[in-house]
Structure formats: structure tokens, C-alpha cells
Write a structure and sequence with these properties.
The structure holds 2 protein chains of 2 kinds. By secondary structure, chain A is mainly α. Chain A has 19 helices and no strands. Chain A has helices spanning 2-17, 24-40, 48-67, 70-88, 94-114, 131-153, 157-164, 173-190, 198-204, 217-258, 264-292, 304-335, 339-363, 368-386, 391-401, 408-413, 419-424, 433-451, 460-468. In chain A, 28% of the residues are buried. Chain B is an all-alpha fold. In chain B, 84% of the residues lie in helices and 0% in strands. Chain B contains 4 helices and no strands. Classes of the chains: A mainly alpha, B mainly alpha. At the A-B interface, helix 5, helix 6 and helix 8 of A face helix 1, helix 3 and helix 4 of B.
Chain lengths: 469, 125
């Protein structure tokens, strides 16, 4: 029964994706995947985590229907691997789920071959299929038939012409191969595997930092001495770094208020140099904090001063992040939105999350695994949130309606998802006549492409366009 | 380890996979059969070289280490796949998704992975 379902799913995979653009097919494929997984792994599909992941995967497939953007597709693929990984081991961290999901999808069949065969009923002798003999039964006669056909072909003109006329053009071999690929994928995900010992290690690693066991009194004294020295070093270093960062932030605030009118290149330099400084300072800051709070210093009684200085440093780094945000926003309102400028905002948000999780790590004495897990989760949530937005349309609308100046060429070179918005705003006096022609051509090509879409490729925009006409 | 048997099976598998993928893009011609048979030689040399260089040393190492082969395969095969799969994907991408490159890299991935299974089966997994 399950095998038949897998075969049907493979055929559907081919029908949905073979030579098709992105659209409704992602949503339908998500339903097929869920059905296959639920039938093969009914026990796993009763667990809340797996149900949630399945819901998330389905929602992102719906997002692909509405947005059809690369970001939405990427998110959907990541959710697919997360779901498969969750079926494989639902308690693991999100990044382990990704590895397990990806690995199951590409090499699940081979990995399962290493697992010990399941013990059946010992009283019933297992019927073994001799595949080698079977392949010889098919292969050897076939080889000789082909050889003799080749020989006879030259012996008789009529036979030769008949053989030459043999054509398998009516069979679409690529479609068949695509179906085989679908079967391979479906068969792999139907029984997801887990990478060990990585998964076991992840399951055994909690979020709390544990105090090391007590040792002999002499070693304890030595250890206490080294802790005192490390605490002193940490306090001095972070105090000085706090002063430096405070000074930098003050000068940066003054510079923001002093410099008002700048050209694009000056502003670009200012934002980018700020970003580089931010990248280095945040990475080094988190590295230094992790070094000092890696082990026993977390449990040292006189670490209060160091902890407060660390909190202050995290706060000052957050101020630095806010300053960069202001600069970037200033840049955007003057020269419009671009993907790179949105990327800077995303980076700023992720940096803030990183600083917050580092703060929690020090405050609640957590380990590095906690930091890694929470930050990856935050990045994943942000990716999900970002894929909800049609960025091309958003950028176009913002630049045309809010920004002081914008680059029309940049807007035209964006994907077709802004074609309608551009076309509706093409009467803007700031757009040259040649650019207006380009916009019209873009819109025309886009509408034709949308109208020619097959049912698998339908998306929200194509349906809206069809109903409007 | 019965290396010659494994190499022979791998060569046959690689040839079959390579030609199946390659012919999917062209109409099947009976005259191509000669090329198929002759291609066993370069495909055999390539697949044998890859297996001898990338798969066999791992099994020799595992044998020397005396680790349980079942655990070892489950432990090291993911590493092998995590290296071989991106290489194959990059190869296909860098050759501009040409049918030849797709056929070559798909057959390489399947053959090397399957040779792991054959070697492991020899040890009674």
C-alpha cells in the first residue's frame, strides 16, 4: 500500500514540476509530501512538534502561491527539510533537523542499507530475491539480441530499414527520469534517517552550563587563583573597551547631527564603514564575552563587577547598532530602498538578537549551544517573516512614493513581481520617456507570461490578472 | 574486501546510469550501442579510480581501527555524502546544466554511494 502511495506521489511530482514554473505546484506538492509522510510515519505525525512543522511547511507553500519569490521558495525548501528532520528526530535542534532532513532527502536510501535488517518471523523462511540472477536473465539475452540485430541489419536491406525506423520518440525519457527522481525523493523522505553521533550529541547537550565536579583541595586553590586572575583581566579589559565604545558612540552621535547634506557616495561610505566597524566589534565582543564566560568564571562569587560591565558593553554595542540603523534609514529615505539596504536592516536586527541572546547567556549561565540554537531559530523566524512580503513591490512603492530620489533603472531590473506597480506609476514625471517604454514592455511581457501559465504554474497574481481582464 | 568484484559492479552501474541519463536527452539510436559498449572502458577507469581513491581508504582505515562496521558506516557515510553531493551539484552547475555533466555527476554520486553499500554488505551488515 505504502509503495503504491510512493509511486503515485512520484508521478504527481513529475506532473507538478516537470518543465513547469513556480506556482500552485508547491502547494500541491506540500499536500502530497504530508500525505506520504503521514502514511509512512503515523506515530510521528501524532506529535505536536511534527504537526506544527507540517503546518509551517504548508503555510510556506501557500506563501509561494502568493509571492512566487526566491525567498519564499527558499523558505519553503528549508521548511521541507525541517519537517523531514522533525520526523527523523523531533527533539533535536533546528539546525540538526535541517541536516537530518537534507541528508535523508539526498542519501536516505543508501543510509538505510547500512542499518541492520529487521528481524521477521523466524518460523517463516524469508523469500530472497536473487537480483543478480534476475539482472542476468534480462541483461544477457538483451545484449545478445542487440548484437545479433546489429549483425543482421547489414545482411538484409528490408530488415535494416525496419530496424533503423525503430524510434522511442513517443516516450518522454526525461519525464520518466524525472519521475524516478521523484520516487527516489519520496522513498527517501518516507523513512527519514538521522545522522549519528551528531544527533545524539545534540540531544544530550542541554542549554545550561554545568559546574565542573569538585577536585582535590590543592588543585582547587590553584584553580581559585587562576579564576581571580581571569576575573581581574576580564574586568580591566571590558572596562577599557566600554570606555572606548562609549567615546566612539558619542562621536558618532555628534557626527550624525553635524553632517546633514551629503551626496550618495559620501553617505554610502559612511553607512558602509559603520557596518564594517559594527561587524568586527560585535563579533569580537561576543567572542570576548564567550571566552570569559566559557566555564567556571560564571560560578565565581566575585564576578558581579565583570557581569555588570559585560551588560553595559552589550548595551553600548546595541547603541552602536541603533546608530547604524539611523544612518541606514537616513540613506534609504534620501536615495530609496534597495535589496542591499534592506539586507543591512536585516543584519542589524540579527545583531540585536545576537546581543540579546548573549545577555541572556551571561545572565542565566547558559552554554554556547544555547546561543547557537536561539540565534539560528531567530534567523529562521526572520526568514519566515521576510518571505511574507513582496519585496520588489514594496521597494518600488516606497521609492516612487516616499524616497526623495530613486534609480528607475534599478526598479526596472527587479523581477516581474513589481511590473504592475511600475506600470500603474509610470506616469510619474520623474520617469523618462525611454524608461516609460521599458516599463510598458516589461508589463506587456509579464501579462503575456502570466496568461500562458498552465494550471501547475498558477499563482495569486496570474489569477488576479486573468479575472481583471 | 573483494575490490575487483566491487569495481566491476560499480563500472556496470555507472555505465548504465550514465547512458540512461544521457539518452534521455536524445532519441535512442540503435547505432549508439557500439559507443555504449566502448564507453565501459573510460567509465570503468574513472569509476575505479574514484572508488579506489575515495571509498577504499575509508574501509581500510575502518578495518584497521577495528570499529564496528555498521556504526562506522552510519558515522562516516554522512561525511562522505556531505562532500560528494555538493561537489556533484557544483559540477553540474559549473558545466551549465549540460546533459553530459548531469549524466556524469549523477552516475558518479550513485555509483560511489552504492559502492559503500556493497563494501559494507561484504562485511555482513
Amino acid at each position: 500500500m505504502n509503495k503504491i502511495v510512493t509511486i503515485i506521489a512520484a508521478v504527481l511530482f513529475s506532473i507538478l514540476f516537470y518543465e513547469q514554473a513556480i506556482g500552485l505546484n508547491f502547494g500541491l506538492f506540500a499536500l502530497v509530501t504530508l500525505l506520504v509522510l503521514a502514511l509512512h510515519q503515523p506515530i510521528q505525525f501524532k506529535k505536536t512538534t511534527v504537526i506544527l512543522q507540517a503546518g509551517l511547511y504548508l503555510s510556506t507553500a501557500v506563501l509561494v502561491f502568493f509571492q512566487s519569490s526566491t525567498l519564499a521558495i527558499t523558505t519553503n525548501c528549508i521548511c521541507f527539510f525541517t519537517l523531514v528532520g522533525a520526523v527523523s528526530e523531533r527533539r533535536s535542534s533546528i539546525y540538526v533537523k535541517w541536516f537530518n532532513g537534507l541528508y535523508s532527502s539526498i542519501a536516505g536510501y543508501f543510509h538505510r542499507s547500512f542499518e541492520a535488517p529487521k528481524k521477521g518471523n523466524p518460523d517463516v523462511p524469508k523469500k530472497e530475491i536473487d537480483y543478480w540472477h534476475l539482472s542476468k536473465m534480462v541483461g544477457i539475452p538483451m545484449l545478445f539480441i542487440i548484437l545479433f540485430v546489429l549483425l543482421y541489419k547489414n545482411g538484409n536491406a528490408l530488415f535494416g530499414s525496419l530496424v533503423s525506423n525503430i524510434s522511442f520518440a513517443f516516450i518522454d525519457f526525461q519525464w520518466l527520469l524525472f519521475t524516478v527522481l521523484g520516487y527516489y525523493l519520496m522513498s527517501n523522505i518516507s523513512k527519514p534517517v538521522r545522522i549519528d553521533p551528531g544527533t545524539t550529541m545534540d540531544l544530550e547537550t542541554g542549554n545550561e552550563l554545568l559546574k565542573k565536579d569538585l577536585i582535590s583541595s590543592e588543585t582547587q586553590v590553584e584553580k581559585d587563583n587562576s579564576l581571580v586572575k581571569e576575573n581581574q583581566l576580564g574586568t580591566t579589559l571590558i572596562l577599557l573597551l566600554n570606555l572606548l565604545l562609549l567615546f566612539y558612540c558619542v562621536t558618532d552621535i555628534i557626527s550624525i547631527f553635524k553632517i546633514s547634506a551629503e551626496n550618495a557616495s559620501e553617505m554610502s561610505n559612511r553607512v558602509h564603514s559603520g557596518i564594517y566597524a559594527l561587524i568586527v566589534s560585535i563579533v569580537v565582543a561576543i567572542g570576548i564575552i564567550l571566552y570569559f564566560f566559557r566555564s567556571d568564571l560564571n560560578f565565581y562569587k566575585r564576578n558581579t563587577q565583570l557581569k555588570y560591565l559585560t551588560y553595559l558593553w552589550i548595551l553600548l554595542n546595541s547603541v552602536l547598532v541603533v546608530l547604524i540603523f539611523i544612518k541606514n534609514q537616513d540613506y534609504i529615505s534620501s536615495f530609496g530602498l534597495t535589496y542591499k539596504r534592506i539586507g543591512v536592516h536585516v543584519y542589524i536586527l540579527l545583531t540585536l538578537v545576537g546581543l540579546m541572546t548573549t545577555f541572556i547567556k551571561v545572565l542565566q549561565i547558559k552554554n554556547v549551544a544555547f546561543l547557537f540554537r536561539r540565534n539560528v531559530q531567530a534567523a529562521f523566524v526572520l526568514l519566515l517573516m521576510c518571505s511574507v512580503v513582496n519585496w520588489d513591490k514594496f521597494i518600488t512603492e516606497y521609492n516612487l512614493n516616499q524616497a526623495e530620489s530613486f534609480d528607475t533603472n534599478y526598479l526596472i531590473t527587479l523581477s516581474d513581481r513589481n511590473a504592475t506597480t511600475l506600470y500603474n506609476n509610470s506616469l510619474d514625471s520623474r520617469i523618462s520617456s525611454s524608461d516609460k517604454n521599458r516599463i510598458e514592455k516589461k508589463y506587456h511581457d509579464y501579462t503575456i507570461e502570466m496568461e500562458q501559465r498552465q494550471w501547475q504554474e498558477l499563482n495569486y497574481e496570474s489569477i488576479t490578472l486573468k479575472t481583471e481582464r | 574486501m573483494n575490490i575487483p568484484k566491487n569495481l566491476a559492479k560499480s563500472c556496470l552501474l555507472a555505465t548504465v546510469v550514465f547512458w540512461i541519463v544521457l539518452l534521455s536527452d536524445y532519441s535512442f539510436l540503435i547505432d549508439a550501442l557500439f559507443s555504449m559498449i566502448v564507453s565501459i572502458i573510460p567509465i570503468g577507469i574513472t569509476s575505479s579510480f574514484v572508488i579506489l581513491v575515495t571509498v577504499c581508504p575509508i574501509f581500510w582505515f575502518l578495518k584497521k581501527k577495528g570499529e564496528s562496521l555498521k556504526n562506522a558506516c552510519q558515522k562516516y557515510f554522512p561525511f562522505y555524502v556531505s562532500v560528494s553531493f555538493p561537489i556533484c551539484v557544483y559540477g553540474i552547475y559549473s558545466w551549465g546544466f549540460e546533459t553530459f555533466s548531469i549524466a556524469f555527476f549523477i552516475s558518479a554520486f550513485i555509483t560511489t554511494s552504492q559502492s559503500w553499500v556493497w563494501f559494507a554488505n561484504e562485511f555482513g551488515l
